[in-house]
Amino acid sequence: MSSRAWNPGSAGAGGGTHGRTARRSAPSAGGGPVVLAKQAPPFRMASRELHPENSVVRAGEVEIGSGRLVVMAGPCSVESRQQIRETARRVKAAGADMLRGGAYKPRTSPYDFQGLGGKALAWLAEAGRESGLPVVTEVLSPEDVDLVAGHADLLQVGARNMQNYALLRRLATAAKPVLLKRGPSATIQEWLLAAEYLLSGGNPDVVLCERGIRTFETATRNTLDLAGVALAKQLTHLPVIVDPSHATGKRALVAPASRAAAAVGADGLLIEVHPCPGRALSDGEQSLDPGEFAELMATLHRGERAMAAGE
């Protein structure tokens, strides 16, 4: 069956023709009836049709997808031992659940900062232990999976690697959960089929991350597909989080994009925070400082309390 043939239909929580296509049987003398034939989505293991209940993924002691908004925060790049330890302390004090940080950085330009590699991993793991925050960081190649898994609680597949099938197959055998970012030009179906590589290969612990897609708009770094987040939550049982930093590329837009993501039902947020964004070696323009992050966390907590009171 061609993957193009599948159409999610118009079903929402109330029903509809989700996962079905109209197919007319061979006509008889009296005219043939129209038959609604069940058509399974191509991402079988990721689909709610196979697994109707929400999956909960555990990273360290943190549960993602349990109904509480999980916030992962930290710098785009680990630049020094002092920087990541200070960031971990500040984001933990503000209420973050996990520590993010890049040791290996895939960059568009070969002349940009590429990360500090193994020593950055060690500093990141140390900061995670000291703060009590589980660590999420990116792995770039199949050869690095064991090394990164020895330091991190959640292994990130970056947007550029969403369809790196050698990496996905290797991560499918890893004993750690995987955070799968959506590619900048990927459809929802392509994103879920990438997750299918991990699931079908033996790793049931997959978290999806919407980080913005490429459109004709140039005012923001990417275009945050919030409708795609809501649709993904309908189509798959996997947790779905949002990266508002890469989606917008602008510090002033991170907070409103975070609130919007929470409002459409995202299971978590991946937010860049740097002690001094103006001196950051990468993505300083989209990074919050610790004070701005604390303000955002206070706003998110107020929103959660208001929603709980309204239920």
What is the topological layout?
Elements: E1 20-24, E2 34-38, E3 57-59, E4 62-64, E5 70-74, H1 81-94, E6 98-100, H2 118-131, E7 135-138, H3 145-149, E8 154-157, H4 165-171, E9 178-181, H5 188-200, E10 206-210, H6 226-235, E11 240-242, H7 244-248, H8 251-263, E12 268-272, H9 290-310
Parallel strand pairs: 5-6, 5-12, 6-7, 7-8, 8-9, 9-10, 10-11, 11-12
Antiparallel strand pairs: 1-2, 3-4
Helix pairs in contact: 1-2, 1-9, 4-5, 8-9
Task: Write up this protein.
The protein is α/β, with parallel strands linked by helices and 311 residues long. It is 33% helix and 16% strand. The strands form 3 sheets. An 8-stranded parallel barrel has the order 5-6-7-8-9-10-11-12, surrounded by 6 helices. Strand 5, helix 1 and strand 6 (98-100) form a beta-alpha-beta unit. Helix 8 (251-263) packs parallel to helix 9 (290-310). It is globular. The relative contact order is 0.14.
* Helix-strand topology string: EEEEEHEHEHEHEHEHEHHEH
Strand order of the largest sheet: 5-6-7-8-9-10-11-12
How many beta strands in the DSSP annotation?
12
Total of DSSP H or I helical runs spanning 4+ residues: 9
Biggest β-sheet strands, sense, barrel: 8 strands, parallel, barrel
Mean pLDDT: 89
Percent of residues in helices comes to 25-40%
Distance between the termini: 43 Å
What are the low-pLDDT stretches, counting only 5+ consecutive residues below 50?
A: 1-5, 10-28
The coarse silhouette is globular
**How much of the sequence is in beta strands?**
15-25%
What structural class do helix, strand and pairing data support?
alpha/beta
- Cα Rg: 20 Å
